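FORM 7B: Structural annotation worksheet

SECTION A. Query
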Amino acid sequence: MLSSGNNEDLSNGWEAIANDFISIATWNIGSTTVENWSNSFRPGQTILDVGCGFGGSYTQCLIDNGIKIYGIDASQTLIQEYQKRFPGVLVECEAAENSLYFGREFDGIISVGLIFVLSHEDQILVLQKIAIALKEGGRLLFSSPYQICDWDDLLTCKKSVSLGREMYVNILQKHGLSLISEYTDEGENHYYDFQKSGAL
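SECTION B. Predicted structure
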């Protein structure tokens, strides 16, 4: 579990508003996109949810399809809610940039609503760590705008930053990942679907 000797907020503002977020969030937006993406996985395969929050309807879908899920999130409150909702899932309260990702590789990794809340440097670091934690042939799905832009998050009031499609492709290509598709969900959120070279 995450422990820190200082007051640094590794959740990027999400711990402070976690209870309010749990009470108002539906997490239905994007679920169909994740569920469609996950259809290529077989029962018994593993997916890591980086920035899993308190889970969503797609989480239950993955469980129902026999996928073994692991999750990490830097908000203790969100992780506790996740454990209540999905007690069979192995989760850790850790920041994505500091996590060891359970010390293993995964068939798939998803990261919805996280990458763009990180700093420029931490986005690169986390994507590199994700690439290393992905098995050959594995798939990565994450959300971030396709254009280079920044904005203030409506809930945390903290700055969010998209490095843009070209930068994300360049970062992950260096680690053997190729962009195979892109999606836009009903909330107009943009997703990148990458695959690591090698047969799944």
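SECTION C. Observations
The chain has one domain: 30-196. The longest strand covers residues 134-143.

SECTION D. Sign-off
Analyst initials: ____
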